[in-house]
Amino acid sequence: MQKTEVLFSKKMPAAKSFPSESVLFYDSILNKNPDFKKWASVFTFKIALKSGETLKTIDSLKQNLEKLAILDVPSTPELTFIAVGGGSVGDFVGFLASIYLRGRPFINIPSTWLSAFDSAHGGKNGLNLLKQKNQIGTFYPAIKVYLVEQLLASQPSERMIEALGEVIKISVIGNQSLFKFLEKNIFKLNQKLMYQNLPGAIEAKNKIVKKDPFEKLGLRRVLNLGHTMGHVFESHYGWPHGICILLGTLFSVRWSYQLGMLSVQECIRISHLIESAYTSINLSEDLAGVSDASVRQLLLKDKKRTSKSEIDFIFIKKIGQVVRKKVSVEQIIAEIHRQKTEY
Ligand SMILES: NC(=O)c1ccc[n+]([C@@H]2O[C@H](COP(=O)([O-])OP(=O)(O)OC[C@H]3O[C@@H](n4cnc5c(N)ncnc54)[C@H](O)[C@@H]3O)[C@@H](O)[C@H]2O)c1
Ligand SMILES: [Zn+2]
Questions:
Q1: I need a labelling partner for 185 at 20 to 30 A (CA). Which of 22, 58, 77, 284 fits?
Q2: Against a cut of 0.90, is the pTM above it?
Q3: How far is the CA of 96 from the centre of ligand 1 (A)?
Q4: Ligand nearest to the CA of 206
Q5: Model confidence over 158-215: pLDDT tens digits?
């Protein structure tokens, strides 16, 4: 897989850093940001996008390909696509760049913490199909990812909480020092501290991606910690992805402890960190709100399914070490019942 250059900067990169034949795609919400507006004004070819899951659809792909045709962008090898936005914009533009004229260079400038910490790295993009997430996609890493402090700091604070699910997840999977930092600073977290922790979190993700870039060996699947139940909550309640990952990770913590894989001390430490990050968390109540039939239906659709009724579930052995194990849908449902009553 092509290597991505990750660049850290205080301000947006100068327009001259990009090929002159570039198309800028950006989240239309950034029109409210005067610094961004000024920066974007120099681009000849630009398209504003409405972010969210409806952007990641075939209908929207068709509409935007048509917009490109109307803009009459040059069909040269230098033609480069730049995305500025959150994960939905990055996933959409990354996919478009991978198929347009059989692939043109892609540059990603994430504007949410979730995308800066997670989705902009690892080369995956995706479109949804019939409301199922990321059913269509390619592995197509950005040639460059710019992490711009000023842009990220312009977000409202709730975006920070939404990213914490993935940040805590990656620290549990493979970065003990990040975990300790979060434990110590969770109530003091601000945008500056978030920015400072980007390199460590990205490195931990990239280390895993490198072992299995195209997800052929299953090794990359450990990044799905918290995502099996997380996706159930996301589809059922419609809550932000990062919040659902916090819940899903807590579910995995409790199950790992129950199976004797995780020590009581580490179970308490991880649970405490998750509960501190999102103080209104109530996993037992949230589990009780989803019927067995819904869980069954959502899990059977899950991409981590290995056969009709088996799922690759990620358990935690200790902070910094996770393990992949096949479980049946019925085992997950039995564990949901246990957690609903025992916590
Ligand atoms: N490709 C991957 O590896 C990967 C990994 C994780 C998540 N994802 C995808 O990422 C998406 C979620 O990411 P997200 O939360 O960034 O989504 P998003 O793009 O929908 O952005 C969330 C919200 O933040 C707003 N926003 C963006 N930048 C802003 C800014 N600077 N200031 C104020 N508001 C701003 C958006 O308008 C939107 O309302 C999902 O579609 C998910 O499937 C992909
Ligand atoms: Zn995720």
A1: 284
A2: yes
A3: 17
A4: 1
A5: 789 889 999 999 999 999 999 999 999 999 999 999 999 999 999 999 999 999 999 9
